[in-house]
Write a structure and sequence with these properties.
The complex is a heterodimer of chains A (114) and B (113).
Chain A: E1 3-5, E2 10-14, E3 19-21, E4 24-26, E5 32-39, E6 46-52, E7 60-61, E8 64-69, E9 74-79, E10 88-96, E11 103-104, E12 108-113
Parallel strand pairs in A: 2-12
Antiparallel strand pairs in A: 1-4, 3-9, 5-6, 5-10, 7-8, 8-9, 10-11, 10-12
Chain B: E1 5-7, E2 10-13, E3 19-24, E4 31-38, E5 42-50, E6 53-56, E7 65-71, E8 74-79, E9 88-95, E10 103-104, E11 108-112
Parallel strand pairs in B: 2-11
Antiparallel strand pairs in B: 1-3, 3-8, 4-5, 4-9, 5-6, 7-8, 9-10, 9-11
Classes of the chains: A mainly beta (114), B mainly beta (113).
Chain lengths: 114, 113
Amino acid sequence: AQTVTQSQPEMSVQEAETVTLSCTYDTSESDYYLFWYKQPPSRQMILVIRQEAYKQQNATENRFSVNFQKAAKSFSLKISDSQLGDAAMYFCAYRYGSQGNLIFGKGTKLSVKP
Amino acid sequence: DAGVIQSPRHEVTEMGQEVTLRCKPISGHNSLFWYRQTMMRGLELLIYFNNNVPIDDSGMPEDRFSAKMPNASFSTLKIQPSEPRDSAVYFCASSLSRRETQYFGPGTRLLVL
């Protein structure tokens, strides 16, 4: 069975600094997708970034980038120049290619200090 | 563009009552998902539809839960009878297809007393 593990229940970063959130997953499949979603206090689930397993290049979206290590089954999120609005729960998620459902990690609560 | 729309946003009910949650997916999206979020279990899939047909309902807790998608623009999740352990945030999400990114609605916070 596929599983997603986020080993950091909470993280803290100073405004304008860089922080990395960790995620590991377990799968025997080769066709899959990985995602990071952000959930602010409003509870809205917001897509941050997406990575296709077949792509070797790490995905980047503005201040957000990932370090995708396929052999190690690791998918970390780096947030550069952290802003107060980045404070939220961050969920790592996995999806097997032909299936629809997302499998989520337990989440990491990120605090940003002014 | 309108995102995924869910109603109601909050629901407070008493044990034993019927609860109906509603979802309107993004226009043109063919896949629709219902997730539940609790402190104990995190985010978990309840059921998903593809082209209005239920594909995987293995996450539906028990017979008290049912979901329908009568057309491409509307889905319901019904709990009858409701129990306190059903208290959670219920999310609806939609995607262009099963292989595409899922976009979430704002969620419905359900409290069963």
